[in-house]
Amino acid sequence: MWSTSLSLLALLGSTLAIPNPKISSIRRPGWRPNARRRDLPTDSTDTSSSSPTTTAPKHNIWNSLSNDEAADVIGFLHSRDDLNLTAVEDAGAWDNTILVVDLLAPNKTDALSYMDGEGEKPDRWAIASMLFGATEEPYAQDWVVGPIPITNNSVYYPYTFGTHAPDAKIRVYDIDDHYSLFTDTALEMKDVINDLLNATIENDDDLGSTFDIWGIDPLWHETDENGNDRVIDWVGFWRIPETLQMNHGSINFDGETLLPQGLYMQFDITGRDSSKWFLMGILYGDEYYQSVDEFRSAWKASSFEKYTPNMPGKWINTDQTGKKLCLEEEAPPMSVQPGGQRFKVDEDNKYVEWMDFTFYLTFTRDTGMRLYDIRYKGQRIIYELGLQEAIAHYAGNDPVQSGTSYMDTYYGFGPYAFSQVPGYDMPLYAYCVNTSFHASEISRSHRCGISIFESDLNHPIQRHSTSSYVSVTKGIALTVRSISTVGNYDYNFDYNFYMDGTIETIVRASGYIQSAYYAKNDEYGYHIHDGLSGSMHDHALNYKVDFDILGTNNTLVKHVIEPITKEYKWFNGTRNTMHMVRKEVESEDDGKMNWSANSQEQVIVVNKDAPNKYGEPRGYKIMPSRGGAGMHLTITNSTNLLNSAGFATHAYYVTKQKDSELRASNAWNDYDTANPLVNFDKFFDGENLVQEDLVMWFNLGMHHVPHTGDLPNTVFTTAQGGMVLTPHNYLLSDPSRQSSQQIRIDYDDGEVGDVYTFDSQQATGQVDLTQISWDPTTYGGDVAVRKFPYDPQNPYADTESIV
Ligand SMILES: [Cu+2]
User: Fold this and answer.
1) pLDDT band at residue 629, thresholds of 50, 70 and 90?
2) What does pLDDT average to over the chain?
3) What residues form DSSP beta bridges with 155?
4) Dmax over Cα atoms in the chain, in whole Å?
5) For strand 139-148 and strand 155-158, is the pairing parallel, antiparallel, or unpaired?
6) What CATH number was assigned to the domain covering residues 178-239+260-309?
């Protein structure tokens, strides 16, 4: 993700976000909202003609707020005089507004009572994040609202039990737009800029159409000589790619993050009185100047060293380029679904049944899709599985790279989980789920924000050959996929389900890197284009997996494979060999862990009270499956992230489940990382972990040092990480033997005797490709509904990205 230094409300995915003095800077020239009204989906999901349906055994108590529920919550809050709220549409920086409303997941004990027994369906509650601007010290605050639907019994109060900051408040230090500081300063030194950056800037319009100016995220705090907190913003110049004329309009390839100009400005933006803000300094070529005059004087000197500015061009375009490869234009192999869809969906409850797995889906503004109540062979194995936070932590010899540590839930994975492209992002036959979120008093739905599909892995899950027979089983997986483009990066999130009871969590990254200017920074990345460094950074994406193995009483064990020198009765002397040592993680004091060298520790969540018939505890093992290029932040005690990155210091963690510890992070931690709303480190308070309800938190990620192959976009091939959760002594044998999709061929002396296909049907006949082709002109983007005043009858097409 990259920052635009925009008004914070503007980042919440709403065209109506106000205050928005800087919003024009994130729109390309010529951008116009497309507000055609037509029959558009809002709450409902697409209906696929050949989709077998089912009825969820229970209501999806984790389902996202409906549009009506969100409107109910927003209307209720607006009716409370003490909150002094202003409709987002009419609000300025000195008003109080509602940022986001989302479901507050029910307490787990209540949820289990309902799901597993005769307990009542838990009430629906919401979290409302509000921004209080009508004060000298603005803050964001999370509130609990409910039960919903709103009645006279509904209440609202700060979400103190789920946060660590006093009153569930976090200070907001840049609520007032300060973009004009950047442009005023830039125009003050336009002679220098025009020379160094090869530009022709005379006025605001020239500046706005040539450069974006943005920088560090989160903001810095420094203490002045009187001990006062100063709020510091460092920004750099980024060149806006040129507009390319197409047959029906124009396009700007989104390569701005490849066009840093190497010129940086530092501002003090403390307090709400803009007259007290000031330029602190300018950085160019690793030289620091304390004023525009000092910079200009240096520039006029003959000894001044000038560097190459980064200019747009074909190199940032992602279109096909270069010589066409032999046969490559022919249609490549593709998947078809000859027997129709082989899984069932309860659309209303977002409930899925595939083979021996069942689960519920939900979708939130902060973290996108998540799964609940994942059952295998009728038994819950996971109560909750989902993304918590995604850090992209940069480093560099310039303050903007050094000061960049995005925590992407601030921008949200929900708002940017754009529609998937059939045949490219997913098979043509994939089942689509529309997803909704509610921010800035707009409800927005992504068409096909989640796709669900089966596919052939194109490698068998099992095989064996002998001189007389061969046995092979197809490798088939169900994938649940969502893709969020948060600024420059596209995160592909998959949950794969396999026939052996394994669940795999995968994240892949593509899109544009955020690069750095190449000047005296060899130790922070490679020189990858004219004036460009592939700015090194770490990705750490934290996931929560709340295991419930045969109930909630579980223990995290490590079965360690160790070398040993040992004597045996049957051997004269000692033998150098290995053995297995069983250990338990007994307390949260030991709950922060890294994967062992050479993968010698098997990490398993077991239920010690539920051994199998051989006495071995039944469990699920967790282990990295792909990527392997990094699991947590390299930087320790990050100067940017302070108390907000406790979940990224290790590869994985285990804690005791608490309803007050729902998420490892909070979307608003970015506002004040020293005083976060959720401080993950505080989850660790020495509690017993033996036969308790356990939650694991693991990181996927990579140490990303972009090279020339990251231009123009990073490719998924290597930018990925995965974790498998797999049965371990859980059943008495491999459950994939239940699959009919296997064959055994008996043969002898070149003659086939018998062939067994276990009633699996063979695909026969012709494939009518016209039935599964897709018309790309039907790609529709997102649908929005205004919440306050509520206008559900007039949805309009509106897709917003951070560009
Ligand atoms: Cu990266």
Assistant:
1) low
2) 92
3) 146
4) 93
5) antiparallel
6) 3.10.450.40
Average pLDDT estimate for 708-737 = 97
* Alpha-carbon span 515 to 367, nearest angstrom: 25
C-alpha 298 to ligand 1 mean position (Å): 35
Q: Are 385 and 373 in contact (CB under 8 A)?
A: no
* pLDDT tens per residue across span 45-63: 343 446 899 999 999 999 9
Q: How far is the C-alpha of 219 from the C-alpha of 207, rounded, in Å?
A: 24
Q: In 3D, which of 561, 630, 783, 601 has the Cα closest to residue 36? A: 783
Core vs surface per residue 319-346: b (16+ CB within 10 A) or e: eeeeeeeeeeeeeeeebebeeebebebb
Contact in structure between 589 and 597 (CB atoms under 8 Å)? no
- d(CA 200, ligand 1 centre) in Å: 33
In our burial notation (b when 16+ CB lie closer than 10 A, e otherwise), range 624-663 reads bbebebbbbbebeebebbbbbbbbbbbbbbbbbbeeebbb
Cα-to-centroid distance, 555 and ligand 1 (Å): 35
For every residue of 427-463, DSSP letters joined together read -TT-EEEEEEEEETTEEEEEEEEEEEEEEE-SS-SEE
**In this predicted model, what pLDDT tens digit does every residue of 186-206 receive, in sequence order?**
999 999 999 999 999 999 999
Residues involved in catalysis:
408, 489
How close is the Cα of 392 to the center of ligand 1, in Å? 7
List C-alpha distances in Å: 330 to 318, 324, 333, 429, 772.
20, 11, 9, 21, 18
CB 264 within 8 A of CB 249: no
CB 221, CB 232: distance < 8 Å = yes
67-171 and 343-738 agree in CATH topology: no
Tokens representing 751? 């003659």
Domain residue ranges of the chain, discontinuous segments joined by +: 67-171, 178-239+260-309, 343-738
| Cβ neighbours for 55, distance < 8 A, ≥ 6 positions apart | 346
Asked if 724 and 503 touch (Cβ cutoff 8 Å), the reply is yes
Tokens at 215, concatenated = 């920088």
From the candidate CATH numbers 2.70.98.20, 1.10.1020.10, 3.40.640.10, 3.90.640.10, the one assigned to the domain spanning 343-738: 2.70.98.20
- Using left for φ > 0, alpha for ψ between -120 and 50, and beta otherwise, residue 639 falls in alpha
Contacts with 414 (C-beta within 8 Å, 6 or more apart), sequence order: 363, 364, 365, 366, 367, 368, 435, 437, 439, 484
Whether the per-residue pLDDT at 10 is higher than 70: the answer is no
Pairing of strands 351-354, 489-498: unpaired
Q: Which two tokens stand for residue 237?
A: 């110049």
CA atoms within 13 A on the CB side of 134: 11
- Evaluate whether 744 touches 755 at the Cβ level (below 8 Å): yes
Q: Are strands 169-171 and 139-148 parallel, antiparallel or unpaired?
A: antiparallel
CB 412 within 8 A of CB 369: no
C-alpha 488/C-alpha 537 separation (Å) is 14
DSSP state of 553: -
Please, what CATH class does the domain formed by 67-171 belong to?
alpha beta
Q: Which two tokens stand for residue 438?
A: 């509610």
The tokens for 782 are: 């997102």
- Distance of CA 153 from the midpoint of ligand 1 (Å): 48
pLDDT at position 31 is 31
Among 688, 682, 681, residue whose Cα is nearest residue 584: 688
Residues for the chain: how many in total?
803
